[in-house]
Amino acid sequence: MGTCLCKEQSSETDEDSNVGSQNAPTVQSISAQVPAFEYESPTTASSSNFCNKFPACATVDRLILETLGIIGSLVENEQEPPPAMLKLHVIADKEDGWIQVVSSMVKVIPMNDPLGPAVITLLLDDCPLPTKESVLKLSEMFNLSAQSSLVGRKSPTHQRNICVLLGCLAEKLAGPSSISILTHGTLNYLIANLNVNVNPSVILFSLIALEKFAQTSENKVTIQKRLKTESKNPLLELERWINSEHYVERQVGFCAQWCLDNLFLVEGRKFSYECVDTSEINVMLNSNDVSEYLKLSPDGLEARCDAYSFESVRCTFQVSSGVWYYETLVITPGVMQIGWATKDSTFLNHDGYGIGDDEYSLAYDGCRRLIWHNAHNEAQSRQCWHPGDVLGSLLDLNKPEIVFYINGVPLAPCTHVFRTARSGFFAAASFMSFQQCRFNFGNKPFLYPPSDREFQSFNDHATLSPEEKVILPR
Prior knowledge:
Elements: H1 28-31, H2 57-71, H3 83-91, H4 95-108, H5 116-126, H6 132-142, H7 146-151, H8 156-172, H9 176-181, H10 184-192, H11 200-213, H12 217-228, H13 234-238, H14 247-262, E1 285-290, E2 295-296, E3 302-305, E4 311-319, E5 323-330, E6 336-342, E7 361-365, E8 370-373, E9 376-379, E10 390-396, E11 401-406, E12 409-410, E13 425-431, E14 435-440
Antiparallel strand pairs: 1-4, 2-3, 3-14, 4-13, 5-10, 5-14, 6-7, 6-13, 7-8, 8-9, 10-11, 11-12
Helix pairs in contact: 2-3, 2-4, 4-6, 4-8, 5-8, 8-11, 11-14
Keywords: Metal-binding, Zinc, Zinc-finger
GO biological process, one term: proteolysis involved in protein catabolic process
GO molecular function, one term: zinc ion binding
């Protein structure tokens, strides 16, 4: 179950021209639960002045870190937000408070927390919608430019968080406000970050920010024109990282390729689906059975979510008898629910419901170390998964039971789902923001095949027509 604590959603369309308090979600019910804060308005937009008002910067920093620390334990969509998050919402209801909260997130969210970027998006989505003026004031504070990208290489965590923030704001304020915040300096900053000498995490979230800005057509044209001024399109070089054994670089390669196929086309470059060899692939992630924002690789075996929703997908092959096994390479260590689902399992991406959240599916989440079924979870005494780990998923319809393996070590068998589903199972998965993994349905040797029973692989029994193997750009 993807954590979804946002009470209301609000965004601006291309036709909207006003962004302000009239569009912001009400905080009256939340404000009643926590004490009010008083502010002294800063005299300028400089970052030093934000510590001259109550609450102190250290207090906001602490609330941000408290929220980050507890967010991984919030497993029910109906749970009330933690007190720290409620207080941040109230602080951000004032313009200066919103800037203070955002500045604090940029400053204190650490690089090594797998939920860091997702928490930035969650907090921004929960806060009242900022005015365009607030966003521009924040932009002036950061003073973004190609030069600041160069200087910022010494502080990659800070720069990564700025890029996450820019992507969130680009999507939250889609339309005219998104156009206004993609200033000349901001665009040059993001393009300058697309350099192989920059920290890969900064490159990754710069790419994602450009993608979010390009959701507004005028921005898309502006970005394309700016990329053409480069002596060589940086996305072409970054695309080469797509099979890197460095897992952040691999994410960069995936996102660069996706942008080249879907957004920032380069004259003379073939689409990736025209170049990929799928002759030995008989099972894929189903591009016709996927929620709206999930990205699929051209070979149909890798999936990534950069949306602020809980995206899901099933594979193209279903089984109703026998013993079956597949493996998933963990590329990102955050929240993914990977397992099995029938056709009756539903994807409710905007409500945070995915695989394991209904009676027709069961999944393992190695970030929170939980087995999921029917939106209920069971804790597992395992370490959190890491990039490079392999999740094995075995479906034994003879017993019946499902067994998950972490790098070949089995978890306890699960039987919950068979109370309501006995046939028609697909491999399936759901993804929280900024998560990615790769599936092996048997077109390559398994790394950790089960040794206690005979099993079959999807790829040995399924077939796909040449047309069914094509993953078209959106």
